[in-house]
Every structure is written in structure tokens, then in C-alpha cells.
Amino acid sequence: MGGIGKALGKVMDIVKPFVSAVNPLLGAAMGFASGLMQGKNPLQSLLGAATDLIPGGGVLKNALGTFANSGLMDGAGGNSLLSGALNLAKGKSKVTDIVGDLFKATKSNPLTNLGMNNATELAAQKMSTFLS
Predict the structure, then answer these.
(1) Is the pLDDT of residue 119 over 80?
(2) Sorting pLDDT into bands at 50, 70 and 90, what band is 72?
(3) 73: which residues sit within 8 A by CB, 6+ positions away?
(4) Cα separations in angstroms, 103 against 32, 34, 68, 94
(5) What does R_g of the chain's alpha carbons equal in angstroms?
(6) How far, in Å, CA of 48 to CA of 92, rounded?
(7) Which of 66, 72, 117, 126 is paired with 110 by a 20 to 30 Å CA distance?
(8) How far apart are CA 14 and CA 30, in angstroms?
């Protein structure tokens, strides 16, 4: 979508909290549509909408816990999942919470070297945005 889609997505972000107060499901759908309009990848938009619908980020924690140690972090799907979660993080403490949840979920079945390198690189990239 062009500039009109991005502008409409930003307007939806402003209206979404008011709609969510009345109808949380419609607010989450608006969040998903807004993310797509602004050019976010569909997985990140869906994660954002899910966290709006279920406060506390439980969706992210469960998704990372379910998929992280199954080898998914070795491929693009796991990278997108973690990247989407990290992009939703606001502040250093949220980044460390997400990375901590990932490593807790993989405690019994550790990440492969490739998965660990991918997770470390994504976390370092996100943390660097808060340090500069």
C-alpha cells in the first residue's frame, strides 16, 4: 500500500483504543489491519493484534515456548516470530523479558547453535536501538 494506506493505518492506531474499550475483538482486528497497511509483515501484525486482545503478552510467551525449541528458530519462521515479538517490545526491560521467556522455554531442549546465534543477533539488534 502506498502513502494513503500508511496514513489510514496510523489513523486506525489512534482510533483502536476507543474501539477496543467497547469491542476488544474488533479492536484487535483493527490492529491487525493497521499493521498490514503500514507495511509490517503479517506475522508481526498478527502478534500485535493478539497481544492487544490478550493483555500481558501471554500469546508471545506461549508461541515462543511452543516453537522455539522445535528447530523453528533455525529457519526464517522462528526468526520472524522472535523478530515480531522484539519489534513489539517497548523498552529494554521488555526485550529482556522476551529473551528470558525464550531461554526459559528452551531450558529442557536447548536451541541449536544456529538457533542460538539467530536469537542472539535479533536480541542484540533490538537492544542496540535503545542504547543509541
Answers:
(1) yes
(2) low
(3) 67, 79, 82, 111, 112, 114, 115, 116, 118, 119
(4) 27, 31, 9, 14
(5) 16
(6) 18
(7) 126
(8) 10
Contact present, 81 and 63 (Cβ < 8 Å)? yes
* Non-local CB neighbours of 119 within 8 Å, separated by 6+ positions: 68, 73, 82, 99, 102, 111
Contact 69, 110 (CB under 8 A): yes
Between vectors from CA 101 to CA 51 and to CA 110, what angle results, nearest 5°? 135
8 Å CB contact between 57 and 77: no
pTM value > 0.90: no
- The x, y and z cell numbers of residue 129, run together, are 536501538
Average pLDDT of the chain, as a whole number: 74
